[in-house]
Amino acid sequence: MQTELLPVSPASLEMAGELIRSGALVGFPTETVYGLGANALDESAVKRIFEAKGRPGDNPLIVHISKVDQLAPLIAVEPSPAAKRLMDACWPGPMTLIFPKSNLVPSAVTAGLDTVAVRLPGHPAARALIDATRRPIAAPSANRSGRPSPTTAMHVLEDMDGRVPLILDGGPCEVGLESTVIDMTGEIPKVLRPGGITPRRIAELCGSAGVDDAVMRPLKEGEVARSPGMKYRHYAPTGALTIVQGEADAVTEAIRNLYDEALAEGKRPLILALDGHLPAYADRKALSLGDGAAGMARSIFARLREADDIGADAIFSEAVAADGLGLAVMNRLGRAAAFHIIEV
Ligand code: AMP
Ligand code: MG
User: Fold this and answer.
1) Cβ(142) to ligand 1 under 6 A?
2) 178 lines ligand 1 (CB under 6 A)
3) Which atom of ligand 1 is least distant from the CA of 226?
4) How far apart are CA 179 and CA 282, in angstroms?
5) Ligand 1 contacts CB of residue 214 (under 6 A)
6) 199 CA distance to ligand 2 centroid (A)?
7) 223-240 residue pLDDT tens
């Protein structure tokens, strides 16, 4: 299959909508990461997503809508007052809500679960694509399973060339991490996967918010993941990734030492550092993670891809505090490092 890469335009959106209606897959930009979309109401189209990604069949997809009134047919309940407040305040945006599913949603979408994940994305091109398709779009991140989520159209092309007919290019993603997934089926909203909408913001809007305790640790043996995607070792770069956290001067000193030791052992080390700390590493090989938690959110997946591209085999990364957006950043980085974290 020939893969076309087109900038977002009225013509390419029309073409993409027609492709999705006909059962094909399209890569498209959202504010979180690039998605791989199919008609959410077409079981065989949805199955193509799992094939193209090499995704395990028990990992459910998120259904994307362009207007709030498209939610009702997908779910089996009336949204609670808390859900309505979240939707009013955070949609369009990087927030996914879990509800009991209606019979309209094929079980391939939810991997057999009786709940469905729904999001109304903030990126105008994503909503325009849903409008052009005139169907809800089921879409996970557009990476091959086990690779970092794509935050540019080129990342999607790297992973999906020859597997999909069309990728829409809408530039780099603004948030850079996948959406906050919130389970709305219990007493209080519960964050299953941290993202751009923080637990504090949810608590402000709903009075309280829980965070699944599997967010900042690996799953125990035999433990069932509340959010199935969390059980998969998300992306682990080929090189061993170590996170070093603590006070800034102690961190840069520890990383310099680790880097120099690795180099002396004949390895190809690489440092991932916040922008302001780059000078502390002098002429060692270092890539920028941008500025603060937001910069790191936008850059981390691209840097992990680059680490593999240059064949780094000992990667040392700085950290940010695991609160607010930093919780989402450290959740992804922690998983990529198999929670190999050094405190200094
Ligand atoms: P992705 O868009 O690639 O990040 O994948 C979507 C993720 O959303 C999955 O890996 C799950 O962790 C989560 N998800 C989707 N549907 C559900 C659901 N019904 N219950 C809990 N988590 C879900
Ligand atoms: Mg994904």
Assistant:
1) no
2) yes
3) 21
4) 36
5) no
6) 21
7) 767 776 666 666 778 899
Ligand 1 centre distance from Cα of residue 301 (Å): 18
**Is 275 buried (19+), middle (13-18) or exposed (0-12) by CB count in 10 A?**
middle
Q: Which residue has the tokens 């591209």?
A: 309
Residue 99: strand pairing partners = 116
Helix, strand, coil shares, percent, the chain, to 5:
35, 20, 45
β-partners of residue 271 are: 286, 316
pLDDT tens, residue by residue, 61-93: 999 999 999 999 999 999 999 999 999 999 999
Which tokens hold the place of 100?
A: 């009991």
pTM for this entry: 0.95
- Which residues in 126-189 belong to E strands, given as ranges? 137-139, 166-169, 180-183
Q: What's the CA-to-centroid distance between 149 and ligand 2, angstroms?
A: 6
Range 153-179 burial, b when 16+ CB lie within 10 A, else e: bebbbebbeebbbbbbbbebbbbbbbb
* Whole-angstrom distance, CA of residue 167 vs CA of residue 189: 34
Atom of ligand 1 nearest to the CA of 232: 10
Distance CA 126, CA 117 (A): 17
CB 198 within 8 A of CB 325: yes
